Amino acid sequence: MTKVLVSDPIDQAGIDILAQVAQVDQRVGLSEDDLKAMIGDYDALMIRSGTQVTADVIKAGGRLRIIGRAGVGVDNVDVPTATQQGVLVVNSPEGNTIAAAEQALALMLSLSRHVPQAHASTMAGGWDRKKYVGNELYKKVLGVVGLGKIGSHVARVCNAMGMEVIAYDPFISADRAQQMQVRLSSLENLFEQADYITLHLPRTPDTENLVNEELLGKMKSTARLVNCARGGIIDESALADALKAGVIGGAALDVYAQEPLATDSPLRSVQERLILTPHLGASTTEAQENVAVDVAEQIRDVLLGLPARSAVNIPGLSAEIMERLKPHLQLAETLGLLVSQLSGGQLQELEVRLQGEFAQHPSQPLVIAALKGVLTSALGDRINYVNASLEAKGRGIRVLEVKDETSKDFAGGSLQLTTRGDQGGHSVTGAVFANGDLRITTIDEFPVNVSPSRHMLLTRHRDMPGIIGQLGSVLGEHNVNIASMQVGRRIVRGDAVMVLSIDDPIPPSLLVTIHAINGIKEAHPVTL
Ligand SMILES: NC(=O)C1=CN([C@@H]2O[C@H](COP(=O)(O)OP(=O)(O)OC[C@H]3O[C@@H](n4cnc5c(N)ncnc54)[C@H](O)[C@@H]3O)[C@@H](O)[C@H]2O)C=CC1
Ligand SMILES: O=C(O)C(=O)COP(=O)(O)O
Fold first, then answer.
1. Which CATH superfamily is domain 347-527 in?
2. In the Enzyme Commission scheme, what number(s) does this protein have (predicted)?
3. What is the ipTM of this complex?
4. Which of 259, 320, 323, 405 is catalytic?
5. Which protein residues touch ligand 1 with a CB less than 6 Å away?
């Protein structure tokens, strides 16, 4: 029975989708130890920001195939460990963009008009119109740090509100910024010039405590800081000090270095000019339905063997590419499986040569598929599109990628894999026909024309009379049925290869007999 564990509150629309293909267990509030103890029973885990998916949790997930993050940030998932363990991580990159952007806007407006403070005072019986005089956003300078999906939406709305928008994002081109009517600036300049600063960048080792005492010290004393991105990007003690000392005009935070916010956090001791919300950026009914459906659909698809559309840890392998290149990826994997079963000893290098039209396809997915095929013989089910590159690297296998657009061997081009190792190497080529059929077209440079089949036998032998008959008889005597046979040679009575598609695998004892046939130099049983 396929089982999915849901360990954070998820919209029912997502649960309903998962229930189409799996038993769904909802257990919110698990400790790391609880999760470690349970995860071994599950094929998939669905989370939000509340669950810490540590390396230990992932390693305890013996049958875990996918972690679905119903939201954007995956900083609560140990993605490198997931990749190493072959566990796919997916998220919903766009499902809560508007919700998070609107939360930042709500906090900016709340800061400028003291909404929470004025509300609390009025509820307590007060009527203080003087104390809560605010400022307008109109004609003020907004500094956006991180001009991605959420930052861009904030920039767009604030432009429309008459603000001047500047931004710091080292990964955005000046052209793109200009299209959004945003002027790019250095981080220091932005902090010096802006009246409002809003953070929309991920938390990474590079951005941790990015907003520190020094940067806060550059802000105007009237300027306000909003963080709806991630805790840990702002040094919270430095912020508390800056607010208390009047170094900056105010701050509003939705996210914290530690969540839930610690009772003894220095932020709790700030009396004025600070607004705190409990990580509500994505908490709209619309966003929660969007992210739940988006991620549940991906979990369902992956459990059914289909590709995911927003994989975090398969670079370059979008669902669209997977679909378009399906037969090509299948060919790469098949050739990888084949060549690895011809090659003995320690593999040191894999060359992936994309010839003719093949060279126009994105090469990275084809290389990953070839590696998956090559490593399957050694690692079985443990190897997949997620961890193939990493496993190859860990084993010191060098991967060479060669594009040869001039090759004209087949209309759709061809793909050649060559292995090199301490015991020499082998090479196989294949093509995809217009109807999607796969063909093996060379084996160690010998031309053949073979459809891959589940069980095959490949020999390298001397091209001489009688050898094909002898091999046929030996197989017949052992009740191995031959479905098809092909011989490839380059010169008469030189070396040749024979490729047999057979209905059953070759037992080891039979292989010894085959090797004993006069003229047979190598015999490799192959399972694809
Ligand atoms: N409070 C909440 O509930 C929510 C928070 N978020 C968080 O908001 C953040 C932004 O999300 P999206 O806009 O969807 O992501 P995104 O990936 O579209 O944009 C992030 C931007 O940050 C930029 N960036 C990366 N490193 C940077 C650096 N050192 N300095 C400046 N810019 C840098 C990137 O180039 C990118 O343009 C993420 O951290 C996400 O986890 C997202 C949704 C809800
Ligand atoms: O999507 C994100 O990155 C968020 O921060 C939203 O977090 P949540 O799903 O509300 O716990």
1. D-3-phosphoglycerate dehydrogenase; domain 3 (3.30.1330.90)
2. 1.1.1.95
3. 0.99
4. 259
5. 71-73, 96-97, 100, 145-151, 168-172, 200-202, 206-207, 228-230, 254-255, 279, 281-282
